[in-house]
Design brief:
The protein has about 325 residues and is an alpha/beta fold. The chain has one domain: 4-Layer Sandwich (Purple Acid Phosphatase, chain A, domain 2), CATH 3.60.21. It is about 25% helix and about 25% strand. It is built from 8 helices and 15 strands. Strands 1, 2, 3, 12, 13, 14 and 15 form a 7-stranded mixed beta sheet that branches. Strands 4-5-6-7-9-8 form a 6-stranded mixed beta sheet. A two-stranded antiparallel sheet has the order 10-11. Strand 1, helix 2 and strand 2 form a beta-alpha-beta unit. The longest helix has 20 residues. The protein is globular, with a radius of gyration of 20 Å. It binds fe (ii) ion.
Amino acid sequence: MPTLAHATGATRKPVTMKIAFTSCFSATVFPQQPVWRQILALKPDALVLTGDSIYIDELTNPTHPKVMGDFEFLQFVAAKYRRQLAQPDFAALITAVPTYAIWDDHDFLWNECYEEKAIQKKTYAGLIRASRALFNAYCAHLEERATFPVNDSDARLWNANEPAPGYREVKLTKGLPSGAPVHLHLVDGRSWRVNRTLLGSAQRGEIETAMAAAPADALHLVASGSVIEAHKGDQWGNFEDLAWLRALADKYSIACLSGDIHANDFHRIPTDKGRMLYDFTASGAAIRRAIWAGTQCQNFGLLDIDATTLRGQWLRFGFPGALAPVTIDRSSWQMRP
Ligand SMILES: [Fe+2]
């Protein structure tokens, strides 16, 4: 029954959706992962994990995963997922908050698998099949509460034609008024990455179709492992897909949520028509700066979205870091001073 406060609106809170995002964590390197408690305390409406939920290639591995047999590889990687899912603070967070994940190089195969064109090598086909099956099971656990297979012989892990995670679109509505929709685009930046192609034409077409079908005032969040532009390393700037994304940003309000770099960051990329493409990076949830070496990271980002603004902030060890919060006007798609 409505209370008086409900009837009068006297205690009405602003209508806001809160989205936490981060990437890069290893239960092997960091069995204790306090970052998840910090995120849960903020009561987000959704959590987006932008890659490297596990590190298939870690220095403690007895052998490099690329030389493992298919079953040995599946066992090895499945154990990493089980260890992450059993991490108590992570388990508590994903139980309480709708969570979506994409993969990046370390949960797809290993660092620099792009440089060696692994997706084109028949010798890795069995490993990629296993990797897909495990990541798809991980996402089914996060999104559908499906039990992650406890047995390596589980039939769910042995589909001979296991599909790539591929592209998925999620419409986020919790906490928002109707008429100001947020569309989350979960892209697969690893399954078709070769030469100067990052997403592949089929996936790009799916994204174009989804954005064209969304309401004109929709805010589009594109979850991507790689950052858009950086001074070095993996980035959309190395691929022909950046021109495609900038052209999309001429038509739609697009903010990327990226990971990979084990640091928090923010970039504005102007389009040819004077519009903006924004890149919110939050990386290093529970890892060291160089996976095994360097300083510890407890990084994540937080978006507060209402009908008129998108506000982004970044936290380290539960506190605001050096990166200043940003506020973007949803209708003009420009930053506010
Ligand atoms: Fe990473």
